[in-house]
Amino acid sequence: MTIGIPIGLPTASGASPVTAGTGVRLNFPLRFGVPAVGVSAPLKAEATAQLLAITVAASVDDPADALALARQARDAPESALAQGFSLGKVKEILAEVGAAQADAARKYDPSDEQRAAAAAVGANARLVAAAGTVMEAAAGPADLKDPSKNTRGWSARRWAIDLLDPGILDRAARASLRATALEPFDAEQDVRTLQKKVSDLEASVAVLRTDVDALKSRGSKGPASPNP
Predict the structure, then answer these.
(1) Which residues lie closer than 8 Å to 102 by C-beta, 6 or more apart?
(2) Rg from Cα positions in the chain
(3) How are the residues of the chain apportioned to helix, strand and coil, as percentages rounded to the nearest 5?
(4) CA 22, CA 18: separation in Å to the nearest integer?
(5) According to the model, what pLDDT value does residue 84 have?
(6) CA 228 → CA 17, 221, 222, 224, 225, distances in Å?
(7) Secondary structure, 3-state, 116-164
C-alpha cells in the first residue's frame, strides 16, 4: 500500500527549495523508508535522506512525544494516523533540508543527541541538524483539532509516522535520550536548557518503566499452552 504525499523536492543540482506553490507527488510505501518504484534513483535517495533527517530531528525535538506516538502507531495505528498534520509546516522543514542538500557549503553543527539519533537509524547528521534549525518550542498543549497551530516538530512526527515504521521514531528518540543522559549538567547553561534535559531524562525513565511493566505483564501470563 502506498500513500501519495505532495512535496516540493529540491535537487542536488541546486533547484529552488520547497515553496507553497511547487511540489511533486511521490508515493512512499506505507511503513517503509524508500519511495515506491517509478521514481528515479537519485530522487529516491534524496527524498529518503530528507524523510529520515526530518524524522530524526523531530524525534530529538520531543523524544517523549515521539515515543508515545510510535507506541500508539504500533498498538492503535488508525488512531495515530487520524491525528493529521500540517503539510505547510512540513514543507518549511523540507525547505531547509533541501537547501542543505543543494549547498554543501552551508554549515550545520549537529548536537550530541542529533548525532546519536542519526546513527541509530542511518540518517545524515548534517541534514538532521539542518532540520533541527527550524524546530520551535511548543507554546502549550497540542491542538488536535487544528494541526496548523502546532509546532513544525509536532507535524513532522505525524508526517513521518504516516510513512515510516514506528520503530524508526522509537529508535531515534531512545538514542537521543541516552545521549542526553550521558551529558554532564553544566551550571553555566540557561535554566530552560537544563529544564529540557531534566524533562527528557524523566521521559526516558517513564519509557523504561512502561517497557518493564509490559515485560512483567507478558511474563505473568506464562508460556502459551501447546496445541492439543
Answers:
(1) 10, 11, 12, 13, 14, 15, 17
(2) 19
(3) 60, 5, 35
(4) 7
(5) 86
(6) 63, 19, 17, 12, 9
(7) HHHHHHCCCHHHHHHHHCCCCCCCCCCCCCCHHHCCHHHHHHHHHHHHC
Q: Report residue 159 as a C-alpha cell.
A: 508526517
> Could you say which residues of the chain have pLDDT below 50?
1-40, 224-226, 228
| CB-count exposure of residue 84 (10 Å: 0-12, 13-18, 19+) | middle
Amino acid letter, 12: A
Q: State the Cα–Cα distance between residues 206 and 222, nearest whole angstrom.
A: 25
Cβ count near 100 (within 10 Å):
26
Q: What is the pLDDT of residue 220?
A: 62
CA-to-CA dists, residue 182 to 58, 93, 176, 200, 204, angstroms = 20, 28, 10, 12, 12
Q: For residue 111, is it left (φ>0), alpha (ψ between -120 and 50) or beta?
A: beta
- Phi and psi at 22, nearest 5°, equal -125, 165
- What CA–CA distance (Å, rounded) separates 180 from 116? 10
DSSP lists the bridge partners of residue 28 as 3
The predicted structure's pLDDT at residue 140: 84
User: In Å, how far from its chain's centre is CA 74?
Assistant: 15
Q: For residues 205 and 126, give the distance between their C-alpha atoms in angstroms, rounded to a whole number.
A: 29
Instruction: Determine if the pTM surpasses 0.70.
Output: no
Q: How many CB atoms lie within 10 A of CB 42?
A: 11
